[in-house]
Write a structure and sequence with these properties.
Helices cover 32% and strands 19% of the residues. It is of the alpha/beta class. It folds into two domains: 9-156, Rossmann fold (3-Layer(aba) Sandwich), CATH 3.40.50; 271-465, Rossmann fold. It has a six-stranded mixed β-sheet. The protein has a six-stranded mixed β-sheet with strand order 7-10-11-12-9-8, with no helix packed on it. The termini are far apart. Residues 316-321 have low confidence and may be disordered.
Length: 466
Amino acid sequence: MARKNKGKRLYVLDTNVLMHDPSSIYRFQEHDIYIPMMVLEELDNNKRGHSEVARNARQASRFIEELMSGAARIAIEKGLQLPKPQGTDYDSGRLFLQTTSLTHQLPADLPGNTSDNTILATVLALQHMRRDVTVVLVSKDINLRIKAAALGVPAEDYHEDQVLDDLSLLYTGQTKLAPDFWDKHGKALESWKENSRTFYRISGPEVSHWYVNELIQDDKESGFEAIVRRIESPVSAVVEVCSNFRSSHHSVWGINARNREQNFALNLLMDPEIDFVSILGNAGTGKTLLTLAAGLAQVLDDRRYHEIIMTRATVPMGDDIGFLPGTEEEKMVPWMGALMDNLEVLTATESGDWGRAATNDLMRHRIKIHSLNFMRGRTFLSKFLIIDEAQNLTSKQMKSLITRAGPGTKVVCLGNVAQIDTPYLTETTSGLTYVVDRFKGWAHSGHITLVSGERSRLTQFASEAL
């Protein structure tokens, strides 16, 4: 019997891993990969249609076909050499496809006529055949991983798409100055004005941890609030004092900020130099209301954008209610309850029924609702694009949406990573987490996490206590 190579592993991929990330077969470094015949069968069964799952199933099949192109049966049995990743100093592993029948007796309570149990039986058989390596099942299905662990099979989730090890490491978009900051640096501050905007040059070791377009604030209730505009060196940065949208004389479409985070969000949303904004926050923190107010102000008042486009992933919180009749926009209306609720708030300031009706009619012509399913291939010119409930999108879906933006378009992503309804997505693998992490520090993007609930005292208590 061959001795086990403790460092070498044979990863058996479940179908959902390939349909989640078709390129996963290239992401296991020096280790080998095994794809059971049942996985190929499931890829074939899921390849039809225009959904993201169907596209990924087709792409996974193409990757496998490219690797085995021109290979003889004996070469496939020996394993197909995977390409070596650039910049690495290790030999890549091999891809093995199931070419013979592998069976293993499962417990009586686990019949082999289900796809999951068939894959599990294949993994158990491989354990007995390949004692020279550690055989590990990789699956996004938590129940399959539980069954595998109960039978003594090492099982892991697919972590390659995980943006962060822990959500607490996610960029919040703001940083607090130390209580003694002004005592240390206050006298040495350089300040100036440009077009009624106030700037400061701040020097100190704290600057090395700052990002462009990050909110800088002190610990006082109505104290210093500024946006990092430029990092000049590891110890020097230029910051601009934030506009105060909490003042009744400086509202956005009749909406005022109620806290620091909301004020900073409006600064980002109203800044023409910022093309991408991401806003995280629990229910009731004002994400949608602030964004719609900023969008309407810049579409109807400033004429900076032609119209507002709103979209979201159509993932139900409970059971699906089935087919919805009507046009694309009519089908999307039930998913856009948040939009309608906030539009009621924004038109409540209009005096009289006639004024409200006129404003509603104007907004209907400038706010378009589009389905996520029909975004591929489009280009939006001078639009204010709002992606709501973005936590339910994968990183690839987020990339597809954001790359629709043409010249003059601003993209705003809203969501709450604590409310993910999509299977196989977690707080650390959500597309919203992905873009927050990847866009931090870009000169034309900004992010803020809203903390305080402003919907009602009931909402605030429920968010904290439930």
